[in-house]
Amino acid sequence: MLEKILQSLEKNIRYLIKWTIISVIIGVVIGAVGAGFGHSISMVTRFWQSHGWAVFLMPVSGVLIVWLYRTARQEKNKGTDLIIESIRDGKDIPAATAPLIFAATVLSHAASVSTGREGAALQLGGGLANVLSNLCHLERNDRKICVMCGMSACFSALFGTPLAAAVFPMEMATVGSLSYAAMLPCFFASFLAAAVAGKLGMVPEHYEVGAILEFGLTGALLAVLIGILCALVGILMCMCLHTSNSLYRKYFPNPYIRILASSAIFILLTLVFSERLYNGSGAHLIELCFEGEAVPYYAFLLKILFTATALGAGFKGGEIVPALCVGATAGTTVAALCGVPTGMCAAIGMVCLFVSVTNCPVASVFIAFELFGFEAMPYYAIAVAVSFTLSGYYGLYHSQRFLFSKLKAMPYGDSDDQNHT
Questions:
Q1: Own/partner pairs, 287-296, CB within 8 angstroms, 24+ separation
Q2: Could you tell me if 90 and 148 are in contact, meaning their C-beta atoms sit under 8 angstroms apart?
Q3: Burial of 293 (0-12, 13-18, 19+ CB in 10 A)
């Protein structure tokens, strides 16, 4: 008995030492790369915000992106879906993925394209970690954990939410199952990357919510209302993104023509809505929501339109910050209609949209706490639960799989509530 205990203890200690070393390397390296990526995005964002003509660079940026991916023979690279397949099925990630998504995202942001950066961070961190795992000749299952570590590290470095960043990759590949073997390395890498990025000048995202209604029956009903609305808006956003991609490919088979067509449509939309609220990631629009500035009640619909127009054709970046922007503006609309505090509704809307499009409720609750604090905790918890349930099986990522039904205590494949994956 004692011998078995000692053998088990020795095995656990070896695991701890092994993944501590690997996660420290990943946290430091990818934390530094993530900080460089974040500063690059901030620099080009300042560029387009101070130069209104930057949107006319879209055709040039788009053609360069297509050329880069074609030159690297990665035109069929599935982006974040490939990273998810690497976690779930052990698929190898091409070494070109990380530099390509870095360059393509910077090019997209320089032209004020409606795209994010955290989705790109998942590809950047996962791609770099996969290269490291190959250099270390890690076995297939260890490579999966390594990729999750890289995703956590880069997301944390950019967003400054280490708790959510650690859980998100563990939760996103297979909804309904957490990869507990990755818990220790993901948390180590995530917190270390956030610390490294902080030393390199990255400021964690945080929003002042302002006044919060005392929680009670009225507050609970408000949370449910926003959860229902954001579930529907999240479904709409996913459908628009997937449909735009299909339509672009159907009518513009040539990727160069496709991205030029997207540029023309996007520039026209920018000229029509000349205030530039819907260009870029949407971070500036989120700030307006929390500052109490008036934003159009239909802003969330236009942000979806701008994002689908660009991402569907091949511009790069990510959907997460645009989704948070859509949620914030939808929440602001509810606040205006119901006469309740704007910041609180914007915060609830952000986390509801996040869970609606990613199907990751644990990470969504964590990101709420890290972005907004714990004061409105009951609102976030209830709204996330409602939005997660009502959003069904829609999502941003085609490769995401559901292990269990959302409506019945049984495996997803055996239930009759399937609508879309």
A1: 287/207, 289/328, 289/329, 289/331, 289/332, 289/342, 289/343, 289/346, 290/207, 290/208, 290/209, 290/210, 290/328, 290/342, 290/343, 290/346, 290/347, 292/210, 292/342, 292/343, 295/329, 295/332
A2: no
A3: exposed
State residue 419's pLDDT score: 52
Which two tokens mark 301?
Answer: 């619909």
In three-state secondary structure terms, 402 is: strand
By mean pLDDT, which of 83-97, 220-234, 258-272, 398-412 is the weakest?
Answer: 398-412
DSSP structural state of residue 421: -
End-to-end CA, the chain: 48
Distance CA 260, CA 60 (A): 9
- Angle (nearest 5°) at CA 259 between 253 and 264: 120
Q: What tokens does 81 get?
A: 């879906």
Asked if 45 and 280 touch (Cβ cutoff 8 Å), the reply is: yes
Alpha-helical runs (H) found in 139-254: 140-159, 162-172, 183-199, 217-251
Element (H, E) at 376: none
Contact, 226 vs 341, CB < 8 A? Answer: no
345-394 confidence digits (pLDDT tens):
999 999 999 999 999 999 999 999 999 999 999 999 999 999 999 999 99
Where are any strands of DSSP class E within 298-415? 401-402
Cβ atoms of 109 and 44 within 8 Å: the answer is: yes
| Rounded-to-10 torsion of CA 284, 289, 292, 297 | 120
Which residues pair with residue 86 across a beta bridge? none
